[in-house]
Amino acid sequence: MEISDLLTTESVVASLRATSKKQALQDLAKRASDITGLHERAIFDVLMERERLGTTGVGNGIAIPHGKLAQLEKLYGLFARLEKPIDFDAIDEQPVDLIFLLLAPESAGADHLKALARISRLLRDKAVCEKLRGTDDGEALFALLTESAATQAA
Fold it and tell me: For a tag on the chain, would you pick the N or C end, based on fewer CB atoms within 10 A?
């Protein structure tokens, strides 16, 4: 499972404007709807349901919201760099400015967990995060996410 299997240049948002967790998830659900063809409300609902179980704000300014939808046939990722950090109820109580959204089919099982682990490993790399925070160019962000992942896998 590589990051390039989850993302396309269209699924990287270089400068997301949001003032709250809910607004960020709504905007990402809308964008994910365009990519997956699923209804935006269904995506938003599954993300909010997951947040009610516990925050996906993993610390160090990073959130990895995720959910499973029966209508999906493959895994989808969406990465957003926020214009301004927002409160995401993160475990370290720090605001979030990097969000990697993952959507998986209900039947994904281990693939969903492997993708989450892959994303988590990538975003634990402080140097990668510094570079992601240092650019607001979508193609550069896409290259950083996919190149860094390929380098780590080697």
Answer: C
Is residue 112 annotated as a catalytic residue, yes or no? no
State which residues form the domain around 27: 3-153
Q: Cβ–Cβ contacts within 10 Å for residue 94, how many? A: 15
Q: What is the pLDDT of residues 122-133, one digit of tens each?
A: 999 999 999 999
Catalytic residue among 21, 31, 66, 118: 66
Give pLDDT tens digits for 80-104.
Answer: 999 999 999 999 999 999 999 999 9
Query: What is the count of structural domains for the chain?
Result: 1
The CATH number given to whatever domain includes residue 72 is 3.40.930.10
